[in-house]
Amino acid sequence: MLVQCPSRCIDLTLSHLREAGRSRRECVVLWLGKRAATNIQIEVCYRPIQSTAEDMFEIPRAGMQALHGELRQRRLMVAAQVHSHPAEAFHSRADDRWAIIRHEGALSLVLPYFAAHTTPSSFMQDAKVYRFSSAATWVEVPFCQVQRECLEIL
Ligand SMILES: [Zn+2]
Questions:
Q1: What residues does each domain of the chain span?
Q2: pLDDT digit string, tens, across residues 16-51
Q3: Taking ligand 1, which is a single-atom ion, which protein residues have CB atoms under 5 Å away?
């Protein structure tokens, strides 16, 4: 299902990732949205409570509780998670294991170099996009398929 993300969420996502990157830390943000007939519309770029280091992030129990409260109150779902890496973008084994969303079609985006060089217009090119498959694994979506099948920036 196509995830539609407004450009203001991309801006906010990049500013969170870059801000953390200035102190050489990863950062994770979650895109919260509503499911419509043929797509999911992102409404909120949410930065959960997190503990991070140069090569990891973790959302502690209090962060998960706050997230679930937000989802309930605003009737939203987590459509995608986006996080930064210090160097290349890929889905590490820890990313596979700790991904907080695990529904079929969920997206996980990884941005390289703490998103330091990424602009809203290069976002789609720089991000590696993974989709949770029916076989319950994260599968990289080739760039040429991303805009058609996964993610549209509005
Ligand atoms: Zn990672």
A1: 7-139
A2: 999 999 999 999 999 999 999 999 999 999 999 999
A3: 92, 95
Please provide the CATH number assigned to the domain covering 7-139: 3.40.140.10
Contact 111, 83 (CB under 8 A): yes
Extended beta strands in the chain, E state: 2-5, 28-35, 39-46, 51-53, 56-58, 77-84, 107-111, 128-132, 138-140, 151-153
**Distance (Å, whole) CA 135 – CA 107:** 15
Tell how far the Cα of 7 is from the centroid of ligand 1, in angstroms. 23
Q: Cα(37) to centroid of ligand 1, in Å?
A: 31
Mean pLDDT over each residue of the chain, to the nearest integer: 95
* Tokens coding 64: 């998960």
Structure tokens at 89: 């973008």
Q: Using one digit for the tens of pLDDT, what is the confidence trace for 88-106?
A: 999 998 898 888 888 889 9
